[in-house]
Amino acid sequence: MVLVYSDNEKLMKELLAKARELADGLGKKVTAVVVGSGEAADELIRYGADRVIVAEGGPGAFKAEEYADILTGAIEETGSRIVLIGSTKSGKELASRLGGKLGAGCMIDCNRVFLDSGELTVERGVYSGNAVSVERFNSDIKIATVPGKAFDPLEKDDGRSGEVERKTYQIGEYASVVARVQEMVSQGVNVEDAEIIVSAGRGLKNREDLKMIEELAEAIKGYTLGCSRPIAADLKWLPEDNWIGLSGHKVKPKLYIACGISGQIQHIAGMRDSSIIVAINKDADAPIFKSADYGIVGDIYKVVPRLIEELKNQ
Rounded distance, CA 85 to CA 91, Å? Predict the structure, then answer.
């Protein structure tokens, strides 16, 4: 049995596509676990699950200890030997704790998950994304967390049928308590879902110059503004919602335009899966050009206004 869990519905559907592939290769079934109301349980059947377990009576807010108890119960009940968990902040904490409870191997941030000679094998970026590690499990139960955009979800199949069960699992008593949950104030930016991203880098001289990058983004239409680490983390010119990179957001747009970004490996790790990458940098030896499909060697203060003008003329 292959078991899937994520606190992000979109990521859950992406995981179900991979779980379906693995299960079909092994002649097994796919179980999805939902904690809480389970309003989307039937929807998960349409996206590849054979069975959806809705765990009721769980904690109101996420607590890794209690969620690990719930998933432990589901894994033991279903006899699942492969567990895929979304690589969200809470998902990685949950997977690690679950691995400890079950004595299971746990691989974090797997970009590829596949069967090799019937054995579950994963690929992960290591050394800040500078190398790829191919790894296998030597444990009976195998846990892998997968980031968003690693797999495409299956097409919704309204003809699929499956089983939805509501269960209550025993949860232990723990010393930690959730005192308060406060949602992060968002700037309305969702770079992970964007199809076109225009990103600003340290090639900008002043905060006011971001208006030039925004104008380019607006001229393309349907844009989202992104940035490299220095713009968000060091200079604070943009919020972390816009930060793209290994420690920021991983994106997979159809078009990614990097303006004045040198292309350090930490940034490349966050946008290397973009369909088309356009780089603008005055340094012909900038690492960004090694990852770009199209490169423009030139001063962004001359190139970007020309691009804006051409786009507006069209």
Answer: 6
